[in-house]
């Protein structure tokens, strides 16, 4: 299993170098997406904390309790996205070495469902908190 993740030396014939560099760029895109989710999670946690500190006099203030789980969810999803990208890189490299290319349906579907769920959850939280602030 460790051999799967070791260094690979290939003859640079045809488009071998280009294909492997493209795989690396794709992995870096997965990494960038993962870092974006983590940054959003940290921003949400801090935003909810800052907003709850400013309006601490409001007894119906539940922002801090909602911000931490929502931010933590984004950070957890960033770890999942990073592992999906890591697995996808080595799986694709394995196939490209053998002259094949796997279509990436599963990883795209998983990340799309996760992103949609996070967007919907964030929207619900914003609506729930926004509505409770107008009940003063």
TrEMBL record:
One of its GO terms (cellular component) is plasma membrane. The keyword Transmembrane applies. Its main location: membrane. It comes from the Eukaryota. The chain crosses the membrane at residues 27-48, 69-87, 107-130. It is found in: Cell membrane. Residues 18-94 form the DUF202 domain. Keywords: Cell membrane, Membrane, Transmembrane, Transmembrane helix. It is a multi-pass membrane protein. PANTHER family: DUF202 DOMAIN-CONTAINING PROTEIN (PTHR34187:SF2), FGR18P (PTHR34187). This is DUF202 domain-containing protein.
């Amino acid at each position: 299993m460790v051999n799967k993740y070791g260094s690979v030396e290939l003859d640079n014939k045809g488009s071998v170098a280009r294909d492997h560099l493209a795989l690396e760029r794709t992995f870096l895109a997965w990494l960038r997406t993962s870092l974006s989710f983590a940054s959003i999670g940290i921003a949400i946690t801090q935003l909810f904390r800052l907003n709850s500190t400013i309006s601490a006099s409001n007894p119906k203030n539940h922002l801090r309790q909602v911000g931490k789980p929502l931010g933590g969810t984004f950070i957890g999803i960033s770890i999942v996205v990073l592992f999906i990208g890591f697995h996808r890189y080595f799986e694709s490299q394995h196939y490209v070495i053998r002259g094949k290319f796997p279509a990436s349906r599963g990883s795209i579907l998983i990340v799309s469902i996760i992103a949609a769920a996070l967007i919907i959850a964030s929207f619900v939280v914003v609506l729930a908190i926004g509505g409770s602030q107008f009940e003063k």
